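#lab-general

N.A. 3:47 PM
ok so I finally got the sequence cleaned up, no stray characters, all 92 residues accounted for. can someone with queue access submit it? mine expired

B.Y. 3:52 PM
send it over

N.A. 3:53 PM
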Amino acid sequence: MSNTTMWLVIGFCAQAMFSARFLVQWIATERAKKSVVPMAFWYLSVSGGALLLLYAIHRSDPVFIVGQAAGLFVYLRNIYIIKVQHHPELAE
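B.Y. 4:20 PM
back already:
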C-alpha cells in the first residue's frame, strides 16, 4: 500500500468514526424519547477528531488543523466535566 493510499484510508476511517457519533446520539435519543448525548458520542468525537487532525497535519491544511484542534479541546473538556460530575473527587 502506498503512503498516499494509506493516508486516504486513515482519512476515510477517521471521517466514518467521526460521523458515527451522530448515529450513536440519534439511537440513544430515540430509545430514551428525549435528547441524550451518550459518552460514546464524546469518545467517537475525540477518536475521530484526533485522527482527522493527524490527517489534516499530513495534508498541511491549516484551516482543517485549527478546526479539528479546537474541536478536540471541546470534546475533551466535555468528557472531563462529565467525569467530574460523576466523581467530584477528580476535580481536587
